Amino acid sequence: MSQTVALDVGLVVAAHGRHCVVESPEGERIICHPRGKGRGKSGDCVVGDRVRWQASGDEGVIEHIESRRNLLFRQDEWKTKSFAANLDQLLVLVAAEPVFSESQLARALIAAESADIPARIVLNKADLPTIAAARERLLPYGAMGIDVIEVALKTHPEAARARLHPLLDGKASLVLGPSGTGKSTLINLLAPDAKAQVGEISQALNSGRHTTTTTQWYWIDGAERRSALIDSPGFQEFGLRQIDAQQLAVLMPDLRRHATACRFYNCTHLHEPGCGVREALARGEISASRYRIYGEILAELVQRR
Fold this sequence. Notes:
Number of strands: 13
Largest sheet: 5 strands, mixed, barrel
Structural class: alpha/beta
Shape: globular
Strand order of the largest sheet: 1-2-3-5-4
CATH superfamily of the largest domain: P-loop containing nucleotide triphosphate hydrolases
Number of helices: 10
Strand content: 15-25%
Helix content: 25-40%
Order of helices and strands: HEEEEEEEEHEHHEHEHHEEHHH
Oligomer: single chain
Number of domains: 3
């Protein structure tokens, strides 16, 4: 491989620890290791990164990470966990069953808003009787302008494909969702070569020498490689310690639109007189569950300080 080709920009399509799989512009995949441990240069690659690398034997060395458009991550008291970079949109997958956590949904949307990543909610299992309850819980999200898409991935796959495919065209879309919501069904429906792509990753990682990759990039349009789904493993907690407590309401559209009516510029929306948010809550313009979630997250952020 020539020096010019070796230093071309590649795409990180899988990452586990300090092992990354980089895809060349021609579609070749090779396992790479970042050079050194310096954060910001080549030591913290995530899926979706564009990197510059060079060959080293039958593997590669990542020399530099190109500037990111965005990065979606969560942060708790102990660690920061990055999902993916350079995203065009976030799809939060929930289902009629099992009952989803609205707190986790809200936290994912806040993180996306903070990173300036557009988000949609995909509500699966629309064929179940419990869909009505799930639909009602999501009404506040539709009211604040978030697209809520109902599908039945298993029982009506073609209708789901027809509904989702235009929304994914030409985009890199990260799918987040708890186990049991149908993420694997979604990936297999929209990325027909998913198993083959997993096989390529396993082969690149020498099949079993490393544990399963934590995040995976799937092309959903074959050789065109314009549209991708990024699958990320489930999580139990979604910390938001990266958020400034004073900015929390700004990152929640339903609260933000009423916060401008507050008497005090630094209103916490908890107890101050003349609070536009609490007045909207009393009028039923902000849901009680959304306000409760705001209070829970704010308490965490204030406690952090």
